[in-house]
HNH nuclease domain-containing protein (Duganella violaceipulchra), 129 residues
Amino acid sequence: MKLTKAERATLASMFVGRCAYCGDPLGGRWHADHKDPVLRGYAEPSAENPTGILHTHRDVIDNMMPSCAPCNLDKASYTLEQWRTKLEGSAASLTRYSSTYRHAFRFGLVRPVAERVTFHFERATEVQP
Ligand SMILES: [Zn+2]
């Protein structure tokens, strides 16, 4: 669904102008993320659903979160828990696939700091009702 300017302003203020996931300031080019994914292009387009969105019932503002572009693009069509699991595997993935990361780790330049990902919206105290 296309949000109105007022709806976007309401969404942006949800976490005081910060990304619901990482907590970084949204800036001017933020995305309205579907917390529960809608999966574009997975359904047969029709008059009622011209974009072919699967899970059209999720395409509502109550299912949207203000997101910085990098978080929205990385979350893609993952559910929140699928994305959390993917993020939590980042250090293991870097250890396996990045020699630069392994060198930086050996020299103490990088260290994983958490085993559990907590999203900004889960710890934010400034959430509006
Ligand atoms: Zn973010």
